[in-house]
Amino acid sequence: MGKITALKEDKVGRRIKVFVDGFLLFVADKKVITKAGLQLGQSLSVDQIEELKREFLFQNCLDAALHYLSYRPRSEAEIRQRLHKRAFDEDIVDTIIDILKERGLVNDVAFAEFWKDNRLSFSPRSRKLVQLELRQKGVSAEMADEVTSELDDETSAYKAGLRKMRSLTSMDYDGFRLHLFGYLRRRGFSYEVAGRVIKRLWLDRQASVT
């Protein structure tokens, strides 16, 4: 048996530290503590304490996963890695992943599509580089290949170069070519694609000033 000797809120009032017999037992979200009906002076059996620890650990793990997902979609591997770094047990992580999948919050196909579309819209790069990024985030090689199958490097390189050349208006052709070539190569485009796109962009620029 043990007795709850203190329930201390954190500075923002969202989480509560639960002390049993003067020792910190666990920390949980305030709403979870309220739902469990814990009160100061309440006596708890060993079995109750263990069950509460499991419940609060589960809720903490779910909260951590949802918070991580609040910034942007994540792959299953990213979420697992994040939760493992937070030292959650494998069985709890497995359960949380299953719940997130049921809610439609974890779906590697949807994540891969999001990542591809985001790159294409805001930071175009080569198909191979997008595939590599997806693989680094735990997406399977087959899925990464399928999701990026319709990407066209020349179209993506042109889109990337079009944005970059706006800052190169005062350069002659040699400077223009040098800066754009390095820029496109860093985004994974081949020598051949970069060369063709640079010539096209230079012609576009020349046409716009005549």
Strand content range: 5-15%
Please write the CATH class name of the largest domain: Mainly Alpha
What name does the CATH topology of the largest domain carry? Arc Repressor Mutant, subunit A
Measured between the Cα atoms of the first and last residue, the distance is 88 Å
Overall residue-averaged pLDDT value: 92
Structural class: alpha+beta
* C-alpha Rg (nearest Å): 26 Å
Q: In the residues, how many domains can be counted?
A: 4
Major β-sheet annotation: 4 strands, antiparallel
Order of helices and strands: EEEHEHHHHHHHHH
**Fourth CATH level, the homologous superfamily of the largest domain:** Winged helix-like DNA-binding domain superfamily/Winged helix DNA-binding domain
Please mark out the parts with pLDDT under 50 across 5 or more consecutive residues, or reply none: none
> Which architecture of the largest domain would the CATH scheme give at its second level?
Orthogonal Bundle
Provide a count of the helices. Answer: 10
